[in-house]
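Margin note from the TA: students keep mixing up input and output lines. Inputs are the sequences; the output is the structure of the whole complex. Example:
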Amino acid sequence: MAQLKSDLLRGTLDMLVLQVLNDGPRHGYAIGQRLQELTNGELSIEQGSLYPALYRLEKASLLESRWSRNPESNRRARVYSLTAAGRLRLSHDVDGWAAFVHTISRVVPTK
Amino acid sequence: MIGRFSPWTAWREWQQRRLDQRMAEEFAFHQEQEQTRLEREGLPPRKARHESEHRFGDRRRIADLCRMAMLGPPSTTPGGDSMTWLHDLRHAIRGYARQPGFLAIVVLTAAVGIGATTAVFSVVSSVLLNPLPYPQPERLVRLYSATTQEPDQRNYLPAPDFVDFRNLNQVFTAAGAFYDYRETGMDLTGLGSPLRARALAVSSGYFDVLGATPLHGRFLRPEEEIGDDRYGASVVVLSHHLWQQMTGGDPDIIGQQLVLDGEAHTVVGIVRPSFLDVLQGEVDLWIPLNLDPAGRWFNRRNFYLSAVARLAPGVSVVQAQSRIDSVIARVESETPEARGDVTVQVLPLFDDVVGSSPAMLSVLFGASVLVLLIAAINIGNLLVARGLARSRELAVRSALGSGRRRLVRLLLLESGIAATLGGSLGGAIAYGGVKALLAVSPDSLARSEEVAFDPRLLLFALAVMGLTTLLCGLAPALQAARIDPSEALRGGARGGGANPARRRLRTALVASQIALAAVLLIGTGVLLRSFAALHQVPLQFDPEGVLTFETNLPDSRYDEGAQRARFHRQFHEQLQGLPGIEATGAVSKLPALGPYHIWGASHVDERGEEHGTSSEVRVVEGAYFEALGIPLLRGRLFGELDREDHPAVVIVNQALADQFWAGENVVGREINAAGELRTIIGVVANVPYDHLGAVRPKLYLAHGQFADNRNWALTQVVKTDGDPLNLMSSIRAELQTMDAELVLHRAAAFDELLGRQRASQRFVVLLMVVFAAVALTLAVVGIYGVLAYTVTQQRREIGIRVALGAQPRQVLRNILLQGFALATIGLTVGLPAAWASSHFLDSLLFEVTAQDPWVFGLVGLALAVVTLMAGLAPAYQALRIDPMVALRED
């Protein structure tokens, strides 16, 4: 069951990342933490596998990133934020997802 | 050895290094954060670190995925075929090294073509295409009064109209009025030696319209548009150069007082050095206009303001015009008697400033395109020739298994080398050329700080050249790749290049070059003739040895007309006493420098009918006619007695006399002019009012009788018997003895003033001459190149003929005939083409037609001679061919 859930989630990881960043800019670790939080820790993917998704979204200009000083650490953190294109994509994806869930829920009864 | 270096690989490697660095830092941060969190949950540090590494996952795999996401899949052929590229490049360079002369000619031709075109066009484009050095210049418009009968008139605006329009906030973001009806000079005193400054009275919005901001202080305010007379409050904005000159750049001058025409003014602002007033040229200081609705200048019948406005975003000229029309309609309905048939026209500032230059522009543009074409054809020619000569080499390479792609690449590389070298040299020439052109450009174009070498134009020229080089360089390659190698090799053994189709192509190229050169040379010739004719305009007066200058009599001390008239008479008397001065006078506007006051004049004939005309009006004082040598044809000139309390008199020119009373005696007749019935006392010769020699009816009034009309800003005219400028200091000293506060300014030798008027014409002619010279040189190089090549190609043939006993003269004649044939074909096309395109020149010409037969004949002859000359060297070379050597070649 957990495996199935993570497969489903992986396909929609892009949308989840965009959704998390919709609340404001975050660095990679914070994005991962927030995803865990929102899914009650049920999202069990390798933490690092977040990064290829972030890089892909950045390459597609849906995200932008820049270095920022982190007060708690002596390292710089790379902070990601949504671009206008990213915002637009998110709203499309959310609409699509809602339509999908609606259609499926008419066929498959929810518990 | 550079090895497998390629810019693409280097770029990729650099990107990858950057990305790897980023990932290392980012992943480390992530892990550290997780470790800290785990430690906080109670895990011992070592365990926390281990756990965080585990949770992060396989770093190398993740990094690979990230690289894929960012940079795409890794290149399968690292470095590409850089080896073969390098190999071909070396081959291309070696090929040129064997024929350095060929490369030199191609590069020089490209450089001259690109350089000359870019340089000339940079100057023309910055001066004529971008004449407005202001932000968003397309939104700037001028507002003019016009009449319903003549809607294109550009007349001054009355102040109430201006105030109405500037309140149209939805139409204009800002509007400014300025007073340039007459040039305003002001005497600046109280700071060392008195200075004469050019002042411009402007409304508060003037600088906003032009998008200027002050360097120090502020600009003028609406509440300062109130004053006693024409001007507003006693505040002044200084130009950067005046500020520098007076104070050496001291910002503390803000708030201090200056004395202008005897009145104290407070300095409120300094403009930036970059601010250019294209509407008025060099202005030293700006003072506020009086726009007080209660003032005596404020009425709808007083046309005296110039206005400029900035359209609001999204508002078009047409929309602005319709809004203004509706304002006018409203005013008319409220006060019908106030307006009459006066309308207002909105005109883009660009059109207004550039005015008549489009014709000049298109001529210069056409000329530069022609030069570029000639250069391109020249290069094409050379490359085709070389390609033909190399068809054997290419065939061999093709036979040895060089693919078509490889061949094309080799030729592309060769073309690229030539284009790059030519382009760089051309850029350098253009850069130097811009400087050189500025050095010789007339004052009217002297906005040198704006003229810059325009890289876009260089790109355009490079693109044309590059395209030519590619096309002409590729043609032989494609041909070679199509030809059956064995056939080409066999053909080559029999002395290639004799292919009639190819020869026709080259003939066509050279002939078109001659044709283009003919068009350009004829255009230049016609312009030169026109320029010469301009210099022979009969002026009907003698500017030689005449000194002109102005001195302004401030209203504060010379309030009455009689005072001013007395001043001039006394001044002239004093000057007469100086050695070297023959005659002195003064006039409201010098002749041949443009129109000035155009007023109506009329007379009533025997049958009681009134006849009117418009006429240039000049107010003269002293021995003006004598000083300029304007001949008196009948009657007398003004004398001592033509004063206020004597009968009103007038002197007319021949044109006015002819218009009213052709062939009759006009002295003693009466004419209604300048508000009074005046008796004509004399007729003088026609004197042109502009530098092209145009003549209009003109009438002269005696300053002594007309001084009360206004404070006439008279220009003094002093005829000397030597160099007029030598007398400057003694004249200045005389002026000081009369009134130490007065300033002598704008002193100039009259013939220099006239010369300046012609300077912009001279500039166009100069540019055309440069173009023509380049075109001719390129044409000669082209013709020479073709003939020289033909001779080389025919070495065997010539050798055989000489061996069979042909006379040198026959050989020589043969070659020269080929050159002559080229010239004939070229001129057969070029002369009619020049004829057809010559109407572009018409508007620039003076007293010659664009189809001047002399010019056509001369250019035709010159090109024919040049072609023959270009053929001589190859012909001579042909004669020296040793038959035995030529036959053994190949």
